[in-house]
Amino acid sequence: MKPINNQKSIYSALIANILIAITKFIAGFFTNSSSMISEGIHSTVDTSNQLLILYGIKQSKKKADRHHPFGYGKELYFWSFIVSILIFSLGGALSIYQGVTHIIHPLHMGNPLWNYVVLLLSLIFEGSSLIIAAKEFNKTRGEMSWWNAIVNSKDPTSFLVVFEDGAAVLGLLIVMLLMGLSHILNIPELDGLASVLVGLLLVGASFILARESRSLLMGEGIAIETQKKISQLVLKDNAALAVKNMLSTYQSPNEVILMLVVDFEDNLDTEEITAAIDRITASIKSTFPLVRFVFIQPS
């Protein structure tokens, strides 16, 4: 449990996607390429996603007030869930629709030279953004595998950018391959097929992101290993006999609310129990910096 900050990867992805979206739409318009228009839609959705995530980060840092005594940390989880829906609807669904339309009513592609130039540049930009995002994510995943790190991550901004950039790079490779075959074999339907495959790729990514964001939004708690460590820490205090119950939830990637029911020695008076609670609270907060709120109820 340590503080997380992944804004560097978000800003790098935002800059890359703005530039890429413009060039893809221009190339797609002049060459009648369905897959290129689909890629332009993909980059536009990614751009809006990064803006929404940055907005969510800003909102999540608002100070607590009487209406939200624990702060606004879950704003980040809410906007991450909205982003997953946008990837599905605007990214995936529109790409599939665009592809199916061009398969049913194929258009012969013009000179694809500019498409290849744009795709190559996009691959360089998206690849660079993916490398930055992967490096930032590596700082938080520790010894865990990539999949386990994504499942266990409490910060959707970390795996969201990795997923977006990874899907973007894979989508570009699909488009380059099928667009090239479409031009060489003179089969314009392959260009539409590329759009469909990119759309399906985005739909798959959106389901995974929605699943993880929903779990966090619904109140995911701390890991079992961390719970055991906290219990051991509590029992180091001579006044504590057992931890009867432990409830926790991530208010934000950097804030945890922890509630404990602790069995204390029977011969302790109110002042001694209060002192023990203060000691245990201070010990937990110093050992686990993310635990911002600690509530201890004597059994």
TrEMBL record:
Q: Which Pfam family, an example, fits this chain? A: Cation_efflux
Key words of the record: Membrane, Transmembrane, Transmembrane helix, Transport
**Residue ranges of the TM segments:** 12-30, 76-97, 117-137, 158-181, 193-210
Where in or outside the cell it occurs: the entry states:
Membrane
Membrane topology of the entry: Multi-pass membrane protein
Which InterPro entries would you find in this protein's record?
Cation_efflux, Cation_efflux_TM, Cation_efflux_TMD_sf, SLC30A9
Q: Which domain of life is it from?
A: Bacteria
- For the Cation efflux protein transmembrane domain, which residue ranges apply? 12-218
Family matches, as NCBIfam families: CDF
Q: What is the name attached to this protein's record?
A: Cation diffusion facilitator family transporter
Protein's organism = Olivibacter ginsenosidimutans
